[in-house]
Amino acid sequence: MTVQTALQYKDILICPQCNREKNTFNQLILNSDKFKCASCSMTYDVMDGVPILAEDYSSSHIIRRTNNTKNYNIQDNQLNRENFYYEHYSNRSRTIDLQSSYLLKERNLIETFIKENCINGSCLEVGCGTGIFADVSTQYLGLDYSLSSVFAKGFTDYARIVASAESIPLKSQSVNLVFSFNTLEHIPNPELAFSEIDRVLVPSGYAILKPAWHCTKYNTELLPIKSYCELNFLQRCHKFLIPLLKSKAYKFLIKIPQRLIRKLSYSFFSSKIPTKLRYRKLNPYLGNDVFIADCDATADIDCYEGLLYFESRGYKIISHKTIISRLLAGNDLLILQKP
């Protein structure tokens, strides 16, 4: 197998700080083992072929290599989010993860989709984790916020970068396929991530997205596993109602009217204006003592809002061709094509 690094994409790498703060797209210049922005003078480290392009991990932080297994620690200004995802992927192995059934169906789908649609250009995975999708394309590029994930055992022969999905450090219209699974719900501002995905896609490019839609406050508060004596009055009421809140009947009675109103409002009053992504902010639980599904989510995103966001920008909704299928969308995978 040919060893690949993200340095093969150096001509399309841009400064994430300029992108985020000035909405300008300044190309990075590689000098020895660092990338530098000629506009803002920000420098970014390159570690074993991996550009560290998340602003939190810039050279203003002290990053040191702790051992020969490509395991890195941040030494100052540690943020809870950084620590959590560093620990989450520490000692993880791509080789072992590939032996599990995790996202097996999605892996087969992406590989088949690339072949059937003759996608020969770059394929960006947002939230690559340990890289279980890394061999779906020879033009694969993985992006993750976690330092430890991109240096997972078995992932070191593939192209990957450390960066935030809120400021993807790639030139506009430079990617043929963007795909992402179980990631966008963990981004503090998912609307920025949706906008960045739209920006980097080439015309007629594809996006395949499946975050964990409809994340819940009761999971981020650990209500399902806490005893009633640990909760305040409102939390106890919330915990008691969880079976109802999870029922299909409740979701149908609440979600469908909301979506109909949203659809009618958009169709009649703002159909020519790209809509904003509506979502509810969550306070994630980032402890390492217990873990339940999506307790670390930062956003509750309705699948329908994701569909409407791209529909309002002229995307072809391949996965949900009819209005009914969009209104009834649950924890669905979205397949989209940019105009």
Automatic annotation (TrEMBL):
Q: Give the source's domain of life in one word.
A: Bacteria
Q: Where is the Methyltransferase type domain?
A: 124-208
InterPro entries, sorted: Methyltransf_11 (IPR013216), SAM-dependent_MTases_sf (IPR029063)
An example of a Pfam family matching this protein is Methyltransf_11
Q: Which GO terms describe its molecular function?
A: S-adenosylmethionine-dependent methyltransferase activity
SUPFAM superfamilies, A to Z = S-adenosyl-L-methionine-dependent methyltransferases, Trm112p-like
What is the protein name for this chain?
Methyltransferase type 11 domain-containing protein
Q: Which organism is it from?
A: Mastigocoleus testarum BC008
